[in-house]
Amino acid sequence: DIGAAELLRGGDLCIPLAKRRPLAAGEVFLSDWIGLDLVDESGQVLGQIRDWYEQGDLAWIEIQPGAQLVP
């Protein structure tokens, strides 16, 4: 029913972790990155992944400290 679906527009869709689809090789769920350290090629920790945002085809990762957004 399109009317019922319209009532959900702009809301969040939550799926239990156990019910997520299996990933293909090379795929990740960005939500699994939250809390991980971001390190450079030398192993230096640049910050911790705090959140992620999608804008069109691009995903932005929020890094703390400094609330930097990295595409």
Characteristic key phrases:
single chain, 71 residues, mainly beta, four-stranded antiparallel β-sheet, 4 strands, elongated
Helix and strand arrangement:
Elements: H1 2-7, E1 37-39, E2 45-55, E3 58-64, E4 68-70
Antiparallel strand pairs: 1-2, 2-3, 3-4
Strand line-up of the largest beta sheet: 1-2-3-4
Helix content: under 10%
Oligomerization state: single chain
What average pLDDT do the residues reach? 88
Summarize the structure.
Helices cover 8% and strands 34% of the residues.
Task: Give structural notes.
This protein is mostly beta strands and 71 residues long. The protein is built from one helix and four strands. A four-stranded antiparallel beta sheet has the order 1-2-3-4, with no helix packed on it. A hairpin with a 3-residue loop joins strand 3 and strand 4. The radius of gyration is 16 Å and the shape is elongated. The termini are far apart. 0% of the residues are buried. The mean pLDDT is 88.
